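quick one before i forget lol
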Amino acid sequence: MIVWLNGAFSAGKTSAARELTDLIPGSTLYDPEVTGGTLRQLLPQKRLNEVSDPQDLAIWRRLVVDTAAAMLAELGGTLVVPMTLLRQDYRDEIFGGLAARRIPVRHVLLAPDETILRERIAGREEYEDAERSASDRQWALDHIAPYHSALPWLSADAHVIDTSRLTPRQTAERVAEAVRTGAAAACRIVQTPEPTAETLAAGVLLFDEQDRVLLVDPTYKPGWEFPGGVVEPGESPARAGMREVAEEIGIRLNQVPGLLVVDWEPPRPPAFGGLRLLFDGGRLGSGSADRLLLPCAELRDWRFVSEGEAAELLPPLRFNRLRWALRARERNTVLNLEAGVPVG
């Protein structure tokens, strides 16, 4: 199990986390800041200069999941993680990766009053270098506005503790009690097991009356996607696509969709790749679109987009697959792709 302490910078996460390891038997502290510091030593400076925060590096988010999982496998017990996560998609990616490893996460938000938060920031003197301490304080101040913007989803997702009048020990005691009683429940991120070999996946393209295509935003992985999923053993790909559409967005297709493209996705470690099929689910009437459901544990959002808008949302390989599927639909044919490029 992981107890994830979230909150604004200077909310008292690290000091409470240290106290919490004394209160939860068999617990260990893991600070992802260490992973960020390691990346500063490993990555070329040019790559580091492209982001303002290590969290914006996909490798950081992946390593946080891998490191946490490895520590639990090695040590067992509970991992206490003090880390600010203000972007919901990053939270979903990390917690989804942990859920895929069957690691439950208890998400706790430490939320002091803003006046007290600013006082704590003003009092931060973490480094002997005065200039570095001033830069650190400014960093924390600059993130107060993003923290307030994130509060709606943070408050809905996490167990909130007002730490305005609490010492680190008292905060840790509140957290330990919330974990013990279940008040800080495990996050409801969908548990999608990670593949152990190549997979066969079926996606279904659905269109509105303007011929815009439907995309969905999964909570358990980065990037937008088509409705669909992995084909189960003994299941036909087209029927798998129909099942996934019904499960994900509540739309039951009356006809088996026609095949548009077969795309072989090469392995790119740690991903295994495999065959990706896209089917034409046809045009949804306005009534069907109004009935779209959104399972909160699996999908964050959905929208109908033009081909140009899809290029901004989909990863390059996925967009190429869509682009050729749209051409196949226009020509009433089936295309064979390898890594998003037609062959044969």
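fyi The chain has a mean pLDDT of 87.
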